[in-house]
Write a sequence for this structure.
């Protein structure tokens, strides 16, 4: 499991899971609900978190952000949304990914989890999430710490012009367009999201983990031709301050 030093220093519980720790956390491979639930327990338990309060979302590649007080567990999505915010302690927020960018946010007394595929990124899910988090926690953007988790890197993210055009509405192409193995554009989606965070006023942004399409220990929708599991980014406020 991957962790961000910036979030460790901020004192929030979190992690980015992998294929080996603890395995797929979504039923996309047809595994039984009990198997998925047990893996969630393995992921959250060491940090003293209960899967019963876990928030999962039906991710729709948009810019909808929901504020939540508790979740309904690993098998029951709480809303059609791509980001969740909470000020409640002991409530884990999560996003599932297999190439898309997981972004975890924390500020004093408030946290967020964001799923940023290219469509959600182009729709402004990151600035919408930062704004919602600042409102919910009554904090300023410069107080927010952000961690970008394992996701597809530009070495493997060959795209069409519609992706570049969509992202360019919010970020300069110089930030995220890369040269690759073909004449088509290659995109650094993590760099695009990092720039959006900085543009929002977030000053601490840490990137964690390798390219999902390159790493054998991470699920990748593109590398595995759509038939794959999901790793997650999760974050929670501890029940009590240390």
């Amino acid at each position: 499991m991957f962790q961000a030093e910036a979030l460790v220093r901020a004192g929030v519980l979190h992690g980015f899971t992998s294929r080996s720790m603890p395995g797929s956390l979504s039923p996309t491979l047809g595994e039984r609900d009990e198997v998925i639930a047990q893996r969630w327990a393995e992921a959250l338990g060491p940090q003293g978190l209960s899967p019963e309060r876990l928030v999962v979302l039906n991710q729709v590649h948009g810019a909808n952000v929901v504020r939540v007080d508790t979740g309904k567990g690993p098998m029951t999505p709480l809303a059609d949304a791509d980001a969740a915010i909470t000020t409640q302690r002991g409530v884990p927020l999560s996003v599932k990914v297999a190439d898309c960018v997981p972004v975890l946010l924390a500020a004093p007394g408030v946290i967020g989890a964001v799923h940023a595929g290219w469509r959600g990124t182009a729709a402004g899910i990151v600035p919408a999430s930062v704004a919602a988090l600042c409102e919910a926690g009554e904090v300023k953007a410069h107080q927010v710490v952000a961690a970008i988790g394992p996701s597809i890197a530009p070495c493997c993210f060959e795209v069409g012009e519609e992706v570049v055009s969509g992202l360019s509405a919010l970020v300069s192409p110089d930030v995220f367009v890369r040269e690759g193995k073909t004449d088509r554009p290659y995109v650094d989606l993590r760099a695009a999201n990092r720039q959006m965070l900085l543009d929002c006023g977030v000053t601490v942004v840490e990137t964690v983990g390798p390219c999902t399409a390159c790493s054998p220990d991470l699920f990748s929708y593109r590398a595995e031709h759509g038939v794959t599991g999901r790793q997650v980014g999760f974050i929670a406020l501890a029940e009590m301050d240390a």
